[in-house]
Write a structure and sequence with these properties.
Main location: cytoplasm
Strand content: 15-25%
CATH superfamily of the largest domain: Aldolase class I
Bound molecules: iron/sulfur cluster
Protein name: Heme chaperone HemW
Number of helices: 17
Organism: Acetomicrobium mobile (strain ATCC BAA-54 / DSM 13181 / JCM 12221 / NGA)
Pfam family, one: Radical_SAM
Function: Probably acts as a heme chaperone, transferring heme to an unknown acceptor. Binds one molecule of heme per monomer, possibly covalently. Binds 1 [4Fe-4S] cluster. The cluster is coordinated with 3 cysteines and an exchangeable S-adenosyl-L-methionine.
Strand order of the largest sheet: 7-8-6-5-4-3-2-1-9
Mean pLDDT: 93
Radius of gyration: 21 Å
Number of domains: 2
Number of strands: 15
Length: 397
């Protein structure tokens, strides 16, 4: 493989033959596929993801470009891609009409061989989710829907300036669960006026619909967002709310399997687990990221530039690097420690070598005892470790 410097200088089209062959090999093996749909009804004031509002015509052009990007990747592998998991995220994938979804499905079928036992997830937002979407997903391969509810409290949804209300959330949850999909809900905590009681009510109400997965995120104020520049007042301390979820959800049968994720046993998100375990994933679309055998790339964010580059027959890669082994090992440890399975010493040694393993163990020894669990050659964070994880990552990176 070429050096990191060379990789930065030469975008994929300029790679050495050896590097291209190695990528071709990674692309011909089973992988996880991420498809980014960067459109939203409107921009939420705290959102740092790249997403825009767009006309149906621009969305159609974007879908065509997704097909062309897949074609470019398959030309490197010489065959269809083999996906073991698929994740269609955004943005808001449900701003696409049912007709546009049919088009997207045809594109995916053309370039991707979906393996048996596929997990196929899609993100949906209440308010733009329609019965047509659910019917189409049921009749195709979608097995899992992640609903961006954020709250079930009308006051909190208003404050967040979400384009949906609590009734939209309830209607969406009822329809999705009735369709037989594995349903996950995203919730935000740390909002003004949020109390343990209101947080409890929101979680409990979600569970009453029969969901099997819950992701909880602290509201963070990122740079270059309206609220990052001009922070709202009165945010609630998030630590007690997170701690409550850690206490309450296991009582309801949910396993805390990743820092932000809880699920009924066996209903974890396999696509995300593949990412946390450092497996290969291909991201397509504007601002999507991918990782293939140590090669990490990110596509351009701007949709117009993305569509233009792709239509010229070039991949739209803006950043790329070949991770040096030590950095790749450290990053893989941090990703694995996000999950309850943590780092397997034997697997880590085999993959990254003794030197990287010794460095990992040195760092591990320095972590506070109540933040870690070491058992039979496996290293994982304790519930307290999950709560203070951000401060622990600094030790590794
Ligand atoms: S709906 Fe989601 S992706 Fe779209 S602007 Fe709001 S937070 Fe960002």
């Amino acid at each position: 493989m070429p050096s990191c410097r060379l990789m930065r200088k030469n975008k994929l089209s300029g790679m050495t033959n050896g590097a291209t062959a190695r990528l071709g090999w990674a692309l011909s093996c089973p992988l996880s596929l991420y498809v980014h749909i960067p459109f939203c009804v409107r921009k939420c004031p705290y959102c740092a993801f790249y997403s825009i509002t767009a006309s149906p015509e621009d969305m159609d052009k974007y879908l065509d470009a997704l097909g062309q990007e897949l074609q470019l990747w398959t030309s490197l592998s010489g065959d269809k891609l083999h996906a073991q998991t698929l994740y269609i995220g955004g943005g808001t994938p449900t701003v696409l009409s049912a007709k546009q979804w049919e088009k997207l499905i045809l594109i995916l079928e053309r370039y991707v061989d979906f393996l048996p036992f596929l997990e196929a997830s899609v993100e949906a937002n209440p308010g733009s989710l329609r019965a047509d979407h659910i019917r189409l997903w049921r009749s195709w391969k979608i097995t899992r829907v992640s609903l961006g509810a954020q709250s079930l409290d009308e006051g909190e949804l208003n404050w967040l300036r979400r384009p949906h209300n609590a009734y939209d959330v309830a209607d969406s949850l009822a329809a999705l669960v009735a369709s037989g999909q594995d349903v996950s809900v995203d919730l935000l905590f740390g909002l003004p006026g949020q109390t343990i009681q209101s947080w409890h009510r929101t979680i409990k109400d979600c569970l009453r619909f029969g969901i099997r997965h819950l992701s909880i995120y602290e509201l963070t104020l990122e740079e270059n967002t309206p609220w990052g520049e001009n922070p709202p007042k009165g945010l609630t301390a998030s630590y007690p709310l997170y701690r409550f979820a850690q206490w309450y959800l296991p009582k309801r049968g949910f396993t805390h399997y990743e820092i932000a994720s809880f699920s009924l046993p066996g209903h974890w998100c396999r696509h995300n687990i593949a990412y946390w375990q450092g497996e290969n994933f291909l991201g397509i679309g504007a601002s999507a990221w991918g990782y293939l055998d140590g090669y990490r790339y990110g596509n351009v964010k701007d949709i117009k530039i993305y569509v233009k580059k792709i239509s010229e027959g070039k991949l739209a890669i803006a950043d790329e690097e070949l991770l040096p082994t030590e950095q790749a090992a450290r990053e893989s440890a941090v990703l694995a420690l996000r999950t309850m399975w943590g780092v397997s010493g034997r697997f880590f040694r085999r993959r990254w070598g003794w030197k990287a393993y010794r460095d990992f163990c040195d760092t591990w020894r320095g972590l506070p005892e109540d933040c870690k669990i070491t058992c039979h050659g496996r290293y994982a964070l304790s519930p307290k470790g999950f709560r203070v994880a951000n401060s622990l990552w600094e030790e590794f990176l």
